[in-house]
Amino acid sequence: MDVLVFGAGALGSLVGGLLAREHAVTLVGRDPHVGRIREDGLRISGEFDAHVGPEAASEVDGLSADLALVTVKAYDTAAAAAALSGEGVDIDLVCSLQNGLTEGELRAALGDRVLAGTATYGAELVDPGRVRCTGVGRVHVGELDGGESDRAERVAAAFREAGLDCEADPGMPRRRWEKLAVNAGINAVSALARVRNGALAEPPAADVAERATREAARVARAEGVDLTGGDARAALRTVVGETAGNRSSMFQDVRAERRTEVDAINGAVVERGRKHGLETPTNRTLAELLGAWETARGLRPADGDRNR
Ligand SMILES: NC(=O)C1=CN([C@@H]2O[C@H](COP(=O)(O)OP(=O)(O)OC[C@H]3O[C@@H](n4cnc5c(N)ncnc54)[C@H](OP(=O)(O)O)[C@@H]3O)[C@@H](O)[C@H]2O)C=CC1
Ligand SMILES: CC(C)(CO)C(=O)C(=O)O
């Protein structure tokens, strides 16, 4: 399979690099990472030890692929959608592995070529040309609206050929919402309280996290997804326990003074809830507080547009 990875940062370089062991892969990212990969290949350390030689580029013009994986941060989704739907690029299928609800934006630009995806691998970019796998997880792919899918099965088989743990899932709407509900509970709370995930097992942080997760599950049900508040809270407790020693990605972003994905996680819960006439006060407060911090640090686009 010819695979293009749009957004060769931590996750994109890890997944793309592992896929390059078996498939023709082009990583689309930024210099100096892209330049180093061209000169010396990509080194993968941590849970894997590999040195691979994918193609690397800074632009998509002139590229074609059977599958494009979208691995930019959620706030860069509009740019990814615009690039991948441009005239100079020829892509059959697109699959996001991002956190947050981004597929709608991709589908608006790219139509029914878009599959939903989730990834629970852990990745860190350590240096240009070097990525570390900090946790072996699993990738799930499937149709945005759910259901059996030959094309998702083909993608999952291609991932497995390259040694990645990957399944096609006919229940992606529920899987996406459960992941969103867990991220809505953990990420912003841990970032604002400056605590590792394990601290969310105890009150009062656990209560705030559970309220955010329960609100997300209520919105999911309004969207027609079969996710009970009890199931979502059980998933939250499981992930808090399994990742107790982790700093969530949002806590890491705040520590590094980087923009966060709060709009695509807690903000998305608020926006979708509003469409159904549902109040989501905990998610709204979390999104507003992190938004205020991002604004004060000059991390948001000046015009206030959520997508830069
Ligand atoms: N890292 C992880 O372990 C996991 C991450 N995820 C999700 O995956 C997504 C990506 O996360 P992560 O890999 O950590 O993020 P990174 O910031 O490391 O990677 C994104 C990369 O895309 C680049 N990029 C953005 N826009 C463009 C563009 N127009 N052209 C070329 N390159 C571009 C960024 O460059 P620049 O920074 O210069 O803009 C950056 O290098 C997020 O949604 C995250 O939540 C999910 C599971 C695990
Ligand atoms: C599962 C969890 C909360 C692990 O830290 C995560 O996805 C993140 O940090 O973004």
UniProtKB/TrEMBL annotation:
Keywords: Coenzyme A biosynthesis, NADP, Oxidoreductase. GO terms for molecular function: 2-dehydropantoate 2-reductase activity; NADP binding. Residues 3-145 form the Ketopantoate reductase N-terminal domain. Its EC number is 1.1.1.169. It is an enzyme of class 1 (oxidoreductase). It catalyses: (R)-pantoate + NAD(+) = 2-dehydropantoate + NADH + H(+); (R)-pantoate + NADP(+) = 2-dehydropantoate + NADPH + H(+). It comes from the Archaea. GO terms for cellular component: cytoplasm. Pfam families: ApbA (PF02558), ApbA_C (PF08546). One of its GO terms (biological process) is pantothenate biosynthetic process. The keyword NAD does not apply. Pathway: Cofactor biosynthesis; coenzyme A biosynthesis. Residues 174-292 form the Ketopantoate reductase C-terminal domain. SUPFAM superfamilies: 6-phosphogluconate dehydrogenase C-terminal domain-like, NAD(P)-binding Rossmann-fold domains. Belongs to the ketopantoate reductase family. Catalyzes the NAD(P)H-dependent reduction of ketopantoate into pantoic acid. Catalyzes the NADPH-dependent reduction of ketopantoate into pantoic acid. This is 2-dehydropantoate 2-reductase. It comes from Halorarum salinum.
